[in-house]
Protein backbone atom coordinates (compact mmCIF):
# COMPACT_ATOMS: atom_id res chain seq x y z
CA UNK A 1 0.00 0.00 0.00
CA UNK A 2 1.38 3.43 -0.89
CA UNK A 3 1.71 6.33 1.52
CA UNK A 4 -1.10 8.09 -0.33
CA UNK A 5 -3.37 5.12 0.29
CA UNK A 6 -2.34 4.91 3.95
CA UNK A 7 -3.19 8.56 4.47
CA UNK A 8 -6.58 8.33 2.76
CA UNK A 9 -9.46 9.30 5.02
CA UNK A 10 -11.24 6.24 6.38
CA UNK A 11 -14.33 7.24 4.44
CA UNK A 12 -14.16 6.92 0.68
CA UNK A 13 -16.35 7.04 -2.37
CA UNK A 14 -18.77 4.32 -3.40
CA UNK A 15 -16.63 3.30 -6.37
CA UNK A 16 -13.48 3.10 -4.27
CA UNK A 17 -15.10 0.84 -1.70
CA UNK A 18 -16.59 -1.38 -4.39
CA UNK A 19 -13.33 -1.82 -6.27
CA UNK A 20 -10.89 -1.94 -3.34
CA UNK A 21 -9.36 -5.37 -2.66
CA UNK A 22 -9.37 -6.71 0.87
CA UNK A 23 -5.93 -5.38 1.79
CA UNK A 24 -6.79 -1.79 0.83
CA UNK A 25 -8.61 -0.68 3.94
CA UNK A 26 -10.02 2.78 4.50
CA UNK A 27 -10.08 2.20 8.21
CA UNK A 28 -7.71 4.51 10.06
CA UNK A 29 -4.50 2.57 10.51
CA UNK A 30 -3.79 4.22 13.88
CA UNK A 31 -6.83 2.58 15.45
CA UNK A 32 -5.50 -0.73 16.75
CA UNK A 33 -5.91 -2.77 19.91
CA UNK A 34 -2.30 -2.23 20.94
CA UNK A 35 -2.80 1.51 21.43
CA UNK A 36 -6.27 1.28 22.94
CA UNK A 37 -6.37 2.21 26.62
CA UNK A 38 -8.50 -0.24 28.60
CA UNK A 39 -10.36 0.86 31.71
CA UNK A 40 -13.53 -0.06 33.56
CA UNK A 41 -15.47 2.20 31.16
CA UNK A 42 -14.70 0.15 28.04
CA UNK A 43 -13.47 -3.18 29.41
CA UNK A 44 -16.62 -5.11 28.52
CA UNK A 45 -16.75 -3.68 24.99
CA UNK A 46 -13.04 -4.45 24.56
CA UNK A 47 -13.52 -8.03 25.78
CA UNK A 48 -16.32 -8.63 23.28
CA UNK A 49 -14.29 -7.04 20.46
CA UNK A 50 -11.29 -9.27 21.16
CA UNK A 51 -13.54 -12.31 21.34
CA UNK A 52 -14.94 -11.49 17.91
CA UNK A 53 -11.40 -11.28 16.55
CA UNK A 54 -10.05 -14.39 18.22
CA UNK A 55 -12.90 -16.81 17.56
CA UNK A 56 -14.28 -18.12 14.28
CA UNK A 57 -17.67 -18.79 15.87
CA UNK A 58 -19.88 -15.69 15.73
CA UNK A 59 -21.65 -15.27 19.07
CA UNK A 60 -22.57 -11.59 19.34
CA UNK A 61 -24.53 -10.42 16.33
CA UNK A 62 -25.11 -7.63 15.83
CA UNK A 63 -22.57 -6.22 18.25
CA UNK A 64 -23.57 -2.63 19.05
CA UNK A 65 -21.30 -0.21 20.91
CA UNK A 66 -23.10 2.73 22.53
CA UNK A 67 -21.52 5.82 24.05
CA UNK A 68 -20.33 9.36 23.52
CA UNK A 69 -16.65 8.57 22.96
CA UNK A 70 -14.20 5.74 22.28
CA UNK A 71 -16.40 3.79 19.88
CA UNK A 72 -14.51 4.40 16.64
CA UNK A 73 -11.15 3.28 18.01
CA UNK A 74 -12.66 0.04 19.29
CA UNK A 75 -14.64 -1.01 16.22
CA UNK A 76 -11.94 0.07 13.78
CA UNK A 77 -9.48 -2.01 15.79
CA UNK A 78 -11.67 -5.02 14.99
CA UNK A 79 -11.64 -4.12 11.31
CA UNK A 80 -7.88 -3.57 11.22
CA UNK A 81 -7.29 -6.86 13.05
CA UNK A 82 -9.39 -8.88 10.59
CA UNK A 83 -8.78 -7.01 7.34
CA UNK A 84 -6.05 -9.36 6.06
CA UNK A 85 -8.25 -12.44 6.31
CA UNK A 86 -11.77 -11.10 5.94
CA UNK A 87 -13.62 -8.80 3.58
CA UNK A 88 -14.36 -5.82 5.80
CA UNK A 89 -16.65 -2.94 4.88
CA UNK A 90 -16.45 0.08 7.14
CA UNK A 91 -18.77 3.06 6.66
CA UNK A 92 -21.02 5.50 8.48
CA UNK A 93 -24.79 5.50 8.59
CA UNK A 94 -24.77 8.81 6.73
CA UNK A 95 -22.69 7.34 3.92
CA UNK A 96 -24.84 4.22 3.85
CA UNK A 97 -27.85 6.52 3.40
CA UNK A 98 -26.13 8.54 0.65
CA UNK A 99 -25.03 5.42 -1.24
CA UNK A 100 -28.49 3.93 -0.92
CA UNK A 101 -30.08 7.13 -2.25
CA UNK A 102 -27.67 7.31 -5.18
CA UNK A 103 -28.30 3.71 -6.17
CA UNK A 104 -32.07 4.19 -5.95
CA UNK A 105 -31.75 7.25 -8.17
CA UNK A 106 -29.54 5.40 -10.68
CA UNK A 107 -31.56 2.18 -10.57
CA UNK A 108 -28.48 0.18 -9.53
CA UNK A 109 -29.68 -1.41 -6.30
CA UNK A 110 -28.38 -4.83 -7.33
CA UNK A 111 -24.83 -3.43 -7.20
CA UNK A 112 -25.49 -1.86 -3.80
CA UNK A 113 -26.85 -5.10 -2.36
CA UNK A 114 -24.10 -7.24 -3.85
CA UNK A 115 -21.46 -5.16 -2.12
CA UNK A 116 -23.02 -4.85 1.33
CA UNK A 117 -24.38 -8.40 1.46
CA UNK A 118 -21.24 -10.25 0.38
CA UNK A 119 -18.78 -8.92 2.98
CA UNK A 120 -17.59 -10.91 5.99
CA UNK A 121 -17.63 -7.99 8.43
CA UNK A 122 -19.95 -4.99 8.12
CA UNK A 123 -19.11 -2.05 10.39
CA UNK A 124 -21.47 0.93 10.38
CA UNK A 125 -20.92 3.89 12.69
CA UNK A 126 -23.47 6.34 14.11
CA UNK A 127 -26.63 4.40 13.35
CA UNK A 128 -28.60 7.02 15.32
CA UNK A 129 -28.37 9.05 12.12
CA UNK A 130 -30.83 6.63 10.50
CA UNK A 131 -33.59 7.48 12.95
CA UNK A 132 -36.52 8.75 10.86
CA UNK A 133 -34.97 7.49 7.57
CA UNK A 134 -37.59 4.87 6.74
CA UNK A 135 -36.37 3.68 3.33
CA UNK A 136 -32.77 3.28 4.46
CA UNK A 137 -33.87 1.51 7.63
CA UNK A 138 -35.78 -1.00 5.53
CA UNK A 139 -32.75 -1.65 3.33
CA UNK A 140 -30.46 -1.99 6.37
CA UNK A 141 -32.88 -4.48 7.94
CA UNK A 142 -32.77 -6.77 4.91
CA UNK A 143 -28.99 -6.33 4.64
CA UNK A 144 -28.60 -7.43 8.25
CA UNK A 145 -31.00 -10.33 7.75
CA UNK A 146 -29.00 -11.54 4.74
CA UNK A 147 -25.67 -11.26 6.58
CA UNK A 148 -27.02 -13.05 9.63
CA UNK A 149 -28.35 -15.87 7.46
CA UNK A 150 -24.86 -16.28 6.01
CA UNK A 151 -23.21 -16.12 9.44
CA UNK A 152 -21.43 -12.82 8.80
CA UNK A 153 -20.50 -10.35 11.54
CA UNK A 154 -22.30 -7.02 11.96
CA UNK A 155 -20.80 -4.29 14.15
CA UNK A 156 -22.58 -1.00 14.80
CA UNK A 157 -22.01 2.11 16.89
CA UNK A 158 -24.42 4.72 18.20
CA UNK A 159 -24.39 7.75 20.47
CA UNK A 160 -27.66 6.56 22.01
CA UNK A 161 -29.29 3.24 22.84
CA UNK A 162 -31.50 1.89 20.01
CA UNK A 163 -34.49 2.08 22.38
CA UNK A 164 -34.06 5.87 22.31
CA UNK A 165 -34.40 6.02 18.52
CA UNK A 166 -38.10 6.73 18.58
CA UNK A 167 -38.62 6.68 14.80
CA UNK A 168 -36.79 3.42 14.28
CA UNK A 169 -38.44 0.69 12.20
CA UNK A 170 -39.89 -1.87 14.63
CA UNK A 171 -38.31 -4.83 12.85
CA UNK A 172 -34.90 -3.12 12.74
CA UNK A 173 -35.15 -2.21 16.42
CA UNK A 174 -36.00 -5.83 17.17
CA UNK A 175 -32.93 -6.97 15.27
CA UNK A 176 -30.73 -4.46 17.10
CA UNK A 177 -31.87 -5.43 20.58
CA UNK A 178 -31.62 -9.13 19.77
CA UNK A 179 -27.86 -8.70 19.55
CA UNK A 180 -25.37 -7.58 22.17
CA UNK A 181 -25.46 -3.90 23.13
CA UNK A 182 -22.53 -2.69 25.23
CA UNK A 183 -22.08 0.82 26.57
CA UNK A 184 -18.77 2.64 26.80
CA UNK A 185 -19.15 4.90 29.81
CA UNK A 186 -17.48 8.31 30.23
CA UNK A 187 -13.80 8.01 31.16
CA UNK A 188 -12.76 8.59 34.74
CA UNK A 189 -9.86 10.88 35.70
CA UNK A 190 -7.23 8.12 35.69
CA UNK A 191 -8.22 7.00 32.20
CA UNK A 192 -8.22 10.56 30.85
CA UNK A 193 -4.70 11.01 32.23
CA UNK A 194 -3.54 7.84 30.45
CA UNK A 195 -5.14 8.98 27.20
CA UNK A 196 -3.48 12.40 27.42
CA UNK A 197 -0.11 10.79 28.05
CA UNK A 198 -0.60 8.43 25.12
CA UNK A 199 -1.62 11.25 22.75
CA UNK A 200 1.32 13.35 23.92
CA UNK A 201 3.68 10.46 23.20
CA UNK A 202 2.18 9.86 19.76
CA UNK A 203 2.53 13.54 18.82
CA UNK A 204 5.91 13.98 20.56
CA UNK A 205 4.72 16.61 23.02
CA UNK A 206 6.48 16.77 26.40
CA UNK A 207 4.04 17.38 29.25
CA UNK A 208 4.74 17.32 32.97
CA UNK A 209 2.45 15.33 35.25
CA UNK A 210 0.99 18.57 36.63
CA UNK A 211 0.07 19.75 33.15
CA UNK A 212 -1.41 16.37 32.24
CA UNK A 213 -3.54 16.51 35.39
CA UNK A 214 -4.68 20.05 34.62
CA UNK A 215 -5.71 19.08 31.09
CA UNK A 216 -7.59 16.05 32.42
CA UNK A 217 -9.58 18.29 34.77
CA UNK A 218 -10.27 20.80 31.99
CA UNK A 219 -11.69 18.42 29.37
CA UNK A 220 -14.55 15.99 29.18
CA UNK A 221 -14.25 12.38 28.05
CA UNK A 222 -14.14 13.12 24.32
CA UNK A 223 -10.94 11.65 22.87
CA UNK A 224 -11.09 13.99 19.88
CA UNK A 225 -11.10 17.00 22.22
CA UNK A 226 -8.15 15.58 24.15
CA UNK A 227 -6.15 14.97 20.99
CA UNK A 228 -7.09 18.40 19.68
CA UNK A 229 -5.72 20.07 22.81
CA UNK A 230 -2.45 18.14 22.61
CA UNK A 231 -2.04 19.15 18.96
CA UNK A 232 -2.96 22.76 19.79
CA UNK A 233 -0.30 22.90 22.50
CA UNK A 234 2.29 21.54 20.11
CA UNK A 235 1.38 23.93 17.30
CA UNK A 236 1.26 27.05 19.46
CA UNK A 237 4.51 26.24 21.26
CA UNK A 238 6.29 25.75 17.94
CA UNK A 239 4.82 28.84 16.29
CA UNK A 240 5.40 31.06 19.33
CA UNK A 241 8.72 29.45 20.26
CA UNK A 242 7.36 29.02 23.77
CA UNK A 243 7.90 26.36 26.39
CA UNK A 244 4.84 24.32 27.35
CA UNK A 245 4.63 25.23 31.03
CA UNK A 246 1.58 25.56 33.27
CA UNK A 247 1.09 29.26 32.54
CA UNK A 248 1.21 28.60 28.80
CA UNK A 249 -1.30 25.77 29.10
CA UNK A 250 -3.75 27.76 31.26
CA UNK A 251 -3.74 30.69 28.83
CA UNK A 252 -4.28 28.40 25.87
CA UNK A 253 -7.12 26.48 27.47
CA UNK A 254 -9.09 29.52 28.66
CA UNK A 255 -11.16 29.47 25.46
CA UNK A 256 -10.59 25.87 24.42
Task: Spell out the key features of this protein.
256 residues, alpha/beta, Rossmann fold, Helicase, Ruva Protein, domain 3, 2 domains, 12 helices, 5 strands
In short:
By secondary structure, the protein is of the alpha/beta class. It contains 12 helices and 5 strands.
Q: What ranges have pLDDT less than 50 throughout 5 or more consecutive residues?
A: 1-24
CATH superfamily of the largest domain: P-loop containing nucleotide triphosphate hydrolases
| Radius of gyration computed on alpha carbons | 20 Å
CATH class of the largest domain: Alpha Beta
Separation, N- and C-terminal Cα atoms: 37 Å
CATH architecture descriptor of the largest domain = 3-Layer(aba) Sandwich
Count of individual domains: 2
Number of strands: 5
**β-sheet strand percentage:** 5-15%
Shape: elongated
Share in helix:
40-55%
CATH topology of the largest domain: Rossmann fold
